[in-house]
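Board work, copied verbatim: TonB-dependent receptor
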Amino acid sequence: MTQKLTPKQKALAINLDSSIYGTFAEIGAGQETVRHFFRAGGASQTIAKAMSAYDKDFSDAIYGKEYKNRYVTQQRLRKMLRYEVSLIEERLDRESNPGKRFFSYANTVTTINFDKTMKGHGWVGIRFQTKENEDYNEIVIHVKFIENDATLQQETLGSLGVNLIYGAYHYQDNPRQLIESLYDDIALDKLEIDMIDFSGPVFQYVENRLMSLQLVKLGMTEAVIFNSDGNNMLPADVLYKKNIFAVRGSFRPVTLVNIDMFENGLDMFAKDAGCEKKQTEVLFEITIANLRAFGDIDERDFLDRVDVLAKLGYNILISNFSEYYRMVEYFATFTNKYIGVAMGVNNLLDVFDEEYYKNLSGGILEAFGKFFRKDMRVYLYPYKDPVTHELLDSNNLKVNNNLKELYKYFKINDRIVDIVNINPDYSEIYSREILRKIATNEAGWEDQLPKGVAEMIKERGMFGYREELTFEQFK
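↓ predict structure ↓
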């Protein structure tokens, strides 16, 4: 196993590479990253310029004003990176600097405030060349500070910046290793990375959704979000002060049951919240535990699931929230508005299973305090037992005897409501049966999926589908 380098060793390795040359622009917390390069020695071979436009007027004069005076944004960071690279190209003659691979590193952050009510967050990125005169590549990440001391946060930011620059030049051909290396010399409980984006010629074949998956898989963040276009989104931008309606499932594949649950549940949620549907952020959630249900995560299977959801126009949340209360607790960090969760009867029975809450000192009562929080409601979709054909809903499902009164309390107070206007024709659609038919090329599954999904599965060979060959094709 290769020994990990310290930030000082990485900075020195970059400084000793005479082909790497660029600028540092750090706003908000100081010049934590460039300090490593100055102290390592040989910095004159690497640093063309280092600056910190800390004053807003100076910053505006350099990079322009921002909408609503928001400076800690992705837009600000990308503007900084591109402006600084343009200055390098303008001011440094290529003939006088043969073989140079230019870069610009930047960050715009805010650390913990004096009252410690805001932990701080920021954007960090690098725009760089891997070969002389080639187009530039970019890596942009969003970080959330966890430490409770501004000085410690600054030190962590400095190490992260060194790791990013070193990774850009040494691991650009292996983005998974690059992501892992961002935490070299940094403990997971010091910093959270909840968004990453790769772009440029060297990353043209990188699937950013898989990179988001890596963040959750490696414990760097609890959840990531990407939209129907496949773009990674900052959770805070998507969820901040929004009404949120979530549907959890395996979506392997999306069926008419999922859509019936979602559409009718959302109709009820919009009425309960007194808002338009467009004022609600809708998320289809898949958990890491679900992706690992059959062993290691199958990335092809993962992309198949999210591609189908994307085709239908939905935003996707990938999380490590095995328990529902953790998902609701996560949403509550971004909003104090209404939260709705649509689920089937079997899922609600899991919620009322005490086995899931042994890790909590307050057990199931603590979990319910976090789950059934103010302005949160469960929208329950009935389930038809394939053996008895009994239709189960909130009125006849059976929880453990010691939880019956607790269940009644939530039902009487409308914290658990049945989804109405469901299509009874969908009550005997089971995703496992559909998967079996897809894999065995058995007819009849196509009309149990939303419009266009079956065609997509067949065209791309998703979920084990293989077109049956005729004798002439076989020959």
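The longest strand covers residues 101-110.
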